[in-house]
Amino acid sequence: MKHLSPFCLPFLSLLLLFFWVEKNSLLAQEKNPTAQPVAIIGAMDAEIEQFRSYLKNAKSTQLLGVTFYQGSIEDQPVVLVKSGIGKVNAALTTALLLQNFKPSAVIFTGIAGGIGENLLPGDIVISTQTAQHDFGQLSSEGISVWQTFNREEKSNPLFFPCDSALVSLAEQAAAQAQLRLVRTYDAKRKPSINKGTIVTGDVFMASSQGKAKLIKDFNAAAVEMEGGAVAQICFQEKIPYLVIRSISDTADEDAERFYKKFIKVAAFNSASLVIEMLKLME
Fold first, then answer.
1. Which pLDDT score is estimated for 250?
2. Is the per-residue pLDDT at 7 higher than 70?
3. What CA–CA distance (Å, rounded) separates 42 from 97?
4. What is the chain's mean pLDDT, rounded?
5. Distance CA 12, CA 254 (A)
6. How far does Cα 218 stand from its chain's mean position?
7. 24-42 confidence digits (pLDDT tens)
8. What's the pLDDT tens digit per position in 125-148?
9. Are 48 and 73 within 8 A, CB to CB?
10. Is the entire prediction scored with pTM above 0.90?
């Protein structure tokens, strides 16, 4: 047998390296053959800008004027999108998202009005369930809330349950998330982490009377304008979902003033918790 030429050795080394990389790449694909992304939705630019800064290897796709960003955050594949404000925009975006990107789970994140007692700006509410507070019958006595309907005109539940595994993961992440302290009244305070019902309607709640009704009818912790619509689409399509909101205002007559003051810190805190969740996902 002839000896190999010294010039062949570098070539053989490269060839062996190539096969080693290829083999390990295939093994990695076998461990995670589907690699479905986690979907993250926010209604406004302020609610998704922090995620945009973390997104790696980003590429964008436009569908019906909605821009979806694909990439990874903390090594977790994600698809990020701004839905726009309100239930119609949220439902449209969620339907496009599920049809075209096949996410393993959907997380809606952003800000909300605080309904629950002792909730202050910057605090976090992890939803255990969601409901739509403005779907029903309007009479002289006000709105009688109905359960929503699916496409076959069958009733959905009044409360859409959030995925218990995602709720648990959010609680774990909350212990590690770097939330911003919030100056309210005379001192800075550490935001509290809460679980509860988040209700949705196509109104910006700025009424003590309306707030009291949401407590009475739903035992609500927070109110916003998109989560219940996302929940309905995910429930009907059997996709795990979660809504995480940080309080920007008190949903009463001071709501607009508080909203303008605390929107940035609330959006930051909500996004920070979701990013910490991504770190914990396998």
1. 93
2. no
3. 13
4. 89
5. 73
6. 22
7. 443 333 334 457 999 999 9
8. 999 999 999 999 988 888 889 999
9. no
10. no
Q: What would the 3-class secondary structure string for the chain be? A: CCCCCCCHHHHHHHHHHHHHHHHHHHHHHHHCCCCCCEEEEECCHHHHHHHHHHCEEEEEEEECCEEEEEEEECCEEEEEEECCCCHHHHHHHHHHHHHHHCCCEEEEEEEEEECCCCCCCCCEEEEEEEEECCCEEEECCEEEECCCECCCCCECCCCEECCHHHHHHHHHHHCCCCCCCEEECCEEECCCEEEEEEEECCCCCCCHHHHHHHHHHHCEEEEECCHHHHHHHHHHHCCCEEEEEEEEECCCCCHHHHHHHHHHHHHHHHHHHHHHHHHHCC
Q: Note the pLDDT tens digit of each residue in 73-127.
A: 999 999 999 999 999 999 999 999 999 999 999 999 999 999 988 899 999 999 9
Structure tokens at 238: 């059997």
Give the up-direction half-sphere exposure of residue 268: CA atoms within 13 A in the CB hemisphere.
Answer: 12
CB pairs under 8 A, 24+ apart, for 66-71?
Answer: 66/92, 66/93, 66/96, 68/96, 68/97, 68/100, 68/101, 70/37, 70/101
Annotated active-site positions, please?
Answer: 47, 249
Whole-number pLDDT of residue 231: 98
And the tokens for 42? 């926010």
Q: Which amino acid is at 58?
A: A
